[in-house]
Amino acid sequence: TVALIVAVDGPAAAGKGTLARRLAAELGLPYLDTGLLYRATGRRVLDAGADPFDPAAAEAAARALDPADMQRDDLRGAEADRAASGVAAVPGVRAALLDFQRDFGRRRGAVLDGRDIGTVVFPDAGVKLFVTASPEARAHRRWLELRAKGMARAEADVAAEMAERDERDAIRAAAPLRPAADAHVLDTTALDADAVFALALELVRSAR
Ligand code: C5P
């Protein structure tokens, strides 16, 4: 049997990470949070004193990326969010990060979460989930998450920054955020994490 790839895509704070991590544990598969690659790339650009929206600086940072960069503790928060989605629009950045993602899943299979796993990274994934929720629900979840981490913000600011980032991720020409034609769309607006997990597990089991 071929290694199972589960693609989990969707906009910010829809519950992709929580779901993907649980699916990976349940299925005994490695898990990759692909957003960390873009976040770490954005951080490198900021460290260099450059602009994450400058394509040459962004591509150079992606090519120099080191696995240790993904362990940094400054990859969350408004500045990191914005830098990540800035570098993510650069085709050269996406090309530089593609082989790492494919190699990660190729041998043993994997659960990967991101924006383009089902459309670009693994277009032949065994299961594709597109996890979404209303903008209000997602902004509220992110606001709660930040508050729990001691990064209290005004909820309206969190909502506005998230809307801007999702828009940028959706309208870019390179691997825009959108569900693959054969993705199962899971709207988590009215569902808790356990319910989402149960639904997703059912989809994975029926796909095998
Ligand atoms: O998933 P996360 O919010 O950590 O991703 C941060 C940013 O990285 C996203 O807003 C998006 O611009 C970019 N990203 C991407 N493709 C992926 C994962 C993340 O473009 N597969």
From TrEMBL:
CDD domains: CMPK (cd02020). ATP binds at residues 10-18. The keyword Nucleotide-binding applies. It is an enzyme of class 2 (transferase). Residues 6-205 form the Cytidylate kinase domain. InterPro entries: Cytidylate_kin (IPR003136), Cytidylate_kinase_dom (IPR011994), P-loop_NTPase (IPR027417). GO terms for molecular function: ATP binding; CMP kinase activity; dCMP kinase activity. Keywords: ATP-binding, Cytoplasm, Kinase, Nucleotide-binding, Transferase. One of its GO terms (cellular component) is cytoplasm. It catalyses: CMP + ATP = CDP + ADP; dCMP + ATP = dCDP + ADP. This is Cytidylate kinase.
